[in-house]
Design brief:
The protein has about 220 residues and is α/β, with parallel strands linked by helices. The chain has two domains: about 5-55 and about 115-205, Rossmann fold (3-Layer(aba) Sandwich), CATH 3.40.50; about 55-110, Ybab, Chain: A (2-Layer Sandwich). Helix content is about 40%, strand content about 20%. The chain has helices at about 5-15, 35-45, 80-85, 90-110, 135-145, 160-170, 200-205; strands at about 25-30, 50, 55-60, 60-70, 75-80, 125-130, 150-160, 175-180. Helix 2 (about 35-45) links the parallel strand 1 and strand 2 (about 50). Helix 1 (about 5-15) crosses helix 2 (about 35-45) and helix 2 runs parallel beside helix 7.
Length: about 220
Amino acid sequence: MFRNREDAGRRLADGLGFLKGRDDVVVLAVPRGGVVVASEVADAIGAPLDVVITRKVGAPGNPELAVGAVTQEGEFMPDSDLVDRLRVPEAYLKSEVSREAREISRRMERYRGDRPYPSLEGKTVVIVDDGVATGSTVGAAIKSVRLRKPASVILGVPVGARESMEALASVADQVVCLSMPEPFYAIGTFYEDFEQVDDRTVRSLIGRTRGPRAQ
């Protein structure tokens, strides 16, 4: 159990301590909650912080059930088995993907303004979220980052569903997950304080200038 996202971030930073002091590391947070966790990680290891934004596509009539996710570039990554099983209409998917792609663009502008996106080529990129349930949005984030030719992609999360983490381990170069409890319920059940993170907090954390990397 984590007290809050700051506590989770500090504990995750310990697990990522092998990256401390390196000049080739970039931390990318999955908004919104992941930004608070990632800020603690970035401060502790002395790395710059930015965001990678993906959006899940919910099932018809059940928006919490992800049938896929949209990458930062607007590409849809479906859960093909679930789409087929639920017989999700193609027109529905097309509409939802378009809507979520627009939301990604809106959030990028809202969180980052007109700042250029950091170059990830040849870098070690650490993707951080506050937890992983189905893994759809994080999987999309990894795919998005891969397009920018990093040297390696590390996924760091405080807590995750074991099955999802095992699947993500096949697409990330390394996974650091502090806890994989079974049974796994909603991510928020593993936090004492899991209040929603607002846009102002996200902008403040990713816009903050960080000092020189710790040695």
